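User: Fold this; tokens only.

Assistant: Input:
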Amino acid sequence: MLRHDGRSSGQMRPIRIVPNFTRNATGSVLVEYGETRVICTVCVEEGVPSFLRNSSPAQGWLTAEYGMLPGSTGSRTRRERPAPSGRSQEIQRLIGRSLRGVIDLRKATDLTFNIDCDVIQADGGTRTASITGAYVALKMAVDKLLRSGRLNENPLTDAVAAVSVGLRDGEVMVDLDYQEDSTADLDMNVVMTQSGKFLEIQGTAERAAFSRQEVSNILDAAEASLKPVFELLHEAADGHLVET
């Protein structure tokens, strides 16, 4: 059965990744999942937070911030002052956990990777697009530090990408846009590594409980849809515009 935008149930929206989208960050991309667009930047600073100073063994740190710009949604989104909303805090923690799962910070001692994901247009899947784009920006930053000699060895241990998967009337659908997300019986966000391991699975039933078999079907669909995405990530990290 075709979805409202003509996609099949297992088909992701068109993906577009524009590397070096901003000039001053160590790594930056514009990532698009359909009509969802996120600017992801990585700025690297010398030093680590106080709780890591004098730690043994020495290590670096990676942290993430996420926000939606006022014009990113149908009605104006208020700027989050003086602190991010509970939703934004939850998403930025998810982004941070996902990226820390594929980097050995002991190989980046006394460095802090600051990841910023700013949503400029939202149409569902902002957190999954943010994770995917943030990985590309992080890899670009790491490659730059390796070339400059600031890093002696590559701290990245794997690649990471994410996709939302929904269940409606018993049918599994990947990469939900806002219209689908708002009517799904189940909404799950799946974060995976290129080696096939899961970093995070977030699932919530909206209308009825779901079965273990349905979870297995969702994870299979997520894995199948993300396999081709990983090839795009490496191409984009090498500085090439990629789009499907």
